[in-house]
Amino acid sequence: MQLTVKNLKVSYGNIKALHGIDFSIEAGEILTIIGANGAGKSTTLRAISRMVPAKPGSVLEFEGEDILKYNTDKVVSKLGISHVPEGRRIFGNLTVTENLILACFARKDADQIVKDRKWVFDLFPRLEERKDQLAGTLSGGEQQMLAVGRGYMSARKMMLLDEPSMGLAPLLMLEMFDALKEINKLGTTILLVEQNARLALKFAQRGYVIENGFLVLEGPSNELLNNPDVKKAYLGA
Amino acid sequence: MEALTEFIPYILQNLINALQRGSFYAVISIGYSMVYGVLMLFNFAHGDIFMLGTYIGFGIATLFLTLFAGFLPGPVIFIATVVITMFLASWIGVFVEVAGYRPLRSAPRASAAITGLMIGIIFETGILILLGAKRLSFPPLMESIAYNIGGVYFTNVKVLIIILSLFLMLALHTFIQRTKWGMAMRAMSYDFLAVPLMGVSINVMAPLTFAIGAGLAAVAGILYGQAYPILDPYMGVLIGWKAFVAAILGGRGSIKGAALAGYLLGFIEIFVATIFPSTLRDLIAYSIILLILTYRPRGFFGMEHSTKLRL
User: Fold this and answer.
1) Interchain CB distance below 8 Å, B199 and A154
2) Which of B193, B197, B202 sits opposite A154 (nearest CB)?
3) Which structural domain, as residue segments, surrounds residue A83?
């Protein structure tokens, strides 16, 4: 297992967001966690990238290393886990190119960086057209492309994606997931959390369902897609 | 006609004085503005970092003058003093960040403000204990040569102060625009919490920001010491507040804005004093600034930032 999460507990003040969840991902896999707003999806990703503290007793291991030893920036630069956050969080006062350069802040492999940037521009040609534009002037879809491209530039082993479909038109959504497939084909493990359960389950190989801070269901995506409870609660069928 | 030939040199004379005074404010307020922009924190110890930098500059200058005054030309001693003082003073910035502000990073901003004021008091009393209350006089680093062009008097030191300040600001601007550290600083001023996801360590960027601010403040201290050669432990208090005002007036995190506001403050102060009694100087200067801020609450170049500064 590339990533092992055991008994992950997170609280915001007195409010418990995660009640001790367990899951794991194999290298190269696409895994999704679906659930309603506020169920704990984003919190799970933030705990992995150390943006929120995990409670004592939580176990987070990546390739045998204890994630809890590292700060957010080292989770990205040392462990190789990128995080494309909810709401894109691109730097609107920097140009598209500067956003991509900044993502390589801790990388030393200058040649590979140039290749990676070219690959990102091939994946999202719209970004190349706008490379000298301030990122704040991009459309929502383009900003999401930049956020994913930036994630890809920052770290390669695993990508945590927080609602990449949010606010995208249906066609753009499909384009975005095609691009994510391409990234996965190059060997990046993907952990996706989504409210758009149908889209996420069609994209992923395996899924978990999260409810009020507990993982309540687990299984291959097609099983979950046909599960009557999942259908009723998340697929609107 | 005769009135005009007297009037123009008079204006030019004040212009040069204003440029010199504005240079101090500009260079100091940039340090304020950077820390505020990048870390969302007012470093109220900045005025006292300026004071401490001036004392370091004083020490280095005295040392160099005693050792090399015979063999090395004035400008070389000047530049060497500036460079070494800048380096040493930047460590004060690092110290203030690591010891003072880092433990409070997730505490309410008010705690950080109080800490800043406290660090300032520690620096003031520290110097008081170490060197006593007597005022020291900053030695001239190079021989002052006075020029008179068409009734306008200025010295080579004055010109050097203005040029060196402009050079430093230009260098900093280039650093912010062209290097990855500068990019990270700009990104932090936009969305502080998303920056670590780029692999950028806040524990590197925060001390770096403080170090640059402190280094600049120390250079301003040396330049100030050349223009007004008296050092005392409380010299940083008033200048610190003025630089703070200039940073606010310039707009959050804007180097350009802080520099412009610093010069504006210098101009207002000098020109107000030429027209009104000098006791009214600060009253009128700050009334003007208050008026500007009433109509431009964000300052000159205060940029919009992500409304979501916390998760």
Assistant:
1) yes
2) B197
3) 3-235
